[in-house]
Amino acid sequence: MSSPAFPAESATLSLPGPAGALELAVDPPEAGVAALPLTAVVCHPLSTEGGSLHNKVVTMVARGLRELGASTVRFNFRGVGASAGSFDHGEGESDDLRAVVAWVREQRPGQALWLAGFSFGAYVSLRCTAELHPDALISIAPPAAGRSWDFSRIALPECPWLVIQGNDDEIVDPQAVYDWIDGLKRKPVLVRMPETSHFFHRKLIDLRGALQHEVKNWLPAA
Questions:
Q1: Residues 115-128: pLDDT tens digits?
Q2: Largest alpha-carbon pair distance within the chain?
Q3: How far is the C-alpha of 71 from the C-alpha of 122, rounded, in Å?
């Protein structure tokens, strides 16, 4: 399978990945918005719990970035949707992200690249940041508590970094996230969203607004 060209219009693509085909959804900036030299790759939540590129938090994050002028790439980790392979506890999923980023950089050389992720996707994008060197990182409800995902050995981002966490998250312990951030030598911009659950029920518009407000000064020049 050969790698596809980066589309000028919204399209679903199949990209050769380390475990077989990876399903991608690529979208240009929103209509009427000046396009920036920026592509954001957005990672979805846990595959084994129904996470996919169609997750409403993922799609809202991508939409919010497109409204600022970015192009976005959402993709299904291995074993989800039309992506080949099976769940690999973050290891193989990190390889999937590396393949997507390599394709974006090949297709859009010289442009800025941002990484974003929700929940498990925040873990995968964060653990790859020191290697992939994005121009910005956005972490939505990063699962920094518990034994499932080891955040202790992850190298901290040197790029601008935003964390958005709901105060009433029933899946990721908000206080554990705040304690984790308090212990970091290089801290992200932190937005605490009151009365907000893990999946941002009835708070998706607020999520979009918080995201856009915090990252607008990080945008590259048109």
A1: 999 999 999 999 99
A2: 46
A3: 19
Q: Is residue 5 one of the residues assigned to a domain?
A: no
Give the residue ranges of DSSP H helices in 133-222: 174-182, 204-215
β strands within the chain, DSSP E: 11-17, 20-27, 38-43, 71-75, 112-118, 136-140, 161-166, 189-193
94, 19 contact by CB (below 8 A): no
Report the distance separating Cα 37 and Cα 182, nearest Å: 34
Domain assignment present for 222: no
Q: What is the CATH number of the domain that holds 134?
A: 3.40.50.1820
Q: Report yes or no on 119 lying in a domain.
A: yes
Total structural domains in the chain? 1
Q: In 3-state terms, what secondary structure has residue 108?
A: coil
Q: How far apart are CA 112 and CA 91, in angstroms?
A: 25
- What are the pLDDT digits (tens) for 47-58? 999 999 999 999
Tell me the residue length of the chain.
222
In a domain, 6, yes or no: no
Positive or negative: CA dihedral 103, 106, 108, 113: positive
Residue in the structure block whose two tokens are 């199949």: 14
Structural domain boundaries, residue 25:
11-217
Q: Which residues contact 209 (CB under 8 A, 6 or more apart)?
A: none
Decide: pTM greater than 0.90. yes
Residues 6 or more apart whose CB falls under 8 angstroms from that of 173 comprise 145, 146
